[in-house]
Amino acid sequence: GTGEEGKLRSETAPDGTGLGNRKEKSMIAYSWEHDGLRERPTLWEALKLSTERHRGIALTGGGGKTSVMFRLADELADMGKTVIVTTTTHIFNPPGRNVVETDCAEDAAKRLKRNGSVLVVGVPAAGGKLKSLPLTEAARLKELADVLLYEADGAKRLPIKVPKDGEPVILECTDVVIGCMGLDCIGGELEEFCFRTEQAAELLGLQKGPDGHCSHRITCGDAAKILTSESGTRKLVGERDYRVVMNKADNEELIAKAVRIAGDMERLHPVPCAVSCFLRGDHL
Asked: Are 98 and 116 a contacting pair, CB within 8 Å?
């Protein structure tokens, strides 16, 4: 909505947490409104989320999950909300953030500051990453903060994904799932830009060639089908609310592709949809 949730402070937090970690580039967020895109003050508003109804938020799919997760976390902190960020798979240990490395939810409770703060919680893992707490402990994190945000999927930094068995890892306490995709996949070869090519080919009804490869360029229609399919990014959503974010809409051509995909999704499975880009200076 508007009002308190539409405001976004611009100052830097003195302790280097929260607002102070924002990149110099700012995110521009649009919402899909049936006949086109409308710029919104925050990504939270563009996604039509509610701090009362959406307290457990999972992010799935491909490119941009981490950027979306921390953007939403910082916007919530601007609203005076306490936020815990975690994962049920793996995320990179974010530099400059308030991080608790633990497998016990109670340790997070001791470090969470009241009135607008973001706390990252996870178990140390190889390669500078954090891995999931035991799932029962991860679920307890929702009880400690106003909002729990977590990555429930991995995509090897590729822009689009179709999950295999056992993916994504959704906590029962989840209220809304946000499926992410990078628009840079459109027009790219499936085997190069999509994680889990075999599952994607099956979902899209594609056949392998004589060489065993699936030569296919990803279309806007493909993306819409993956984002709305219960075998794709909407897998395991069930009766929960579902949202989509299309990231990296960094020029007019990609904005136009986002509009086409949103229109296709509206025909397949209507879902609140946002489009994001990082830009300096003037808006698109």
From this structure: no
Q: What is the pTM of this model?
A: 0.88
| Residue among 167, 110, 113, 175 at smallest CA distance from 149 | 175
pLDDT digits 0-9 by tens, 183-238: 999 999 999 999 999 999 999 999 877 777 778 999 999 999 999 999 999 999 99
Going from the C-alpha of 56 to that of each of 85, 128, 268, the distances in angstroms are 10, 26, 26
Name the one residue in this structure whose structure tokens are 């009241």.
114
Alpha helices, DSSP H, located in 113-236: 135-144, 190-193, 197-204, 220-228
The rounded distance, in Å, linking the Cα atoms of 270 and 262 is 9
What's the CA gap between 194 and 115, in Å, rounded?
40
What are the helix and strand counts (H, E) for the chain?
8, 14
Is pLDDT at 14 greater than 70 in this prediction?
Answer: no
* Close Cβ partners of 16 (under 8 Å, ≥ 6 residues apart): 96
The DSSP line for 195-227 is ESHHHHHHHHT----TTS----BPPHHHHHHHH
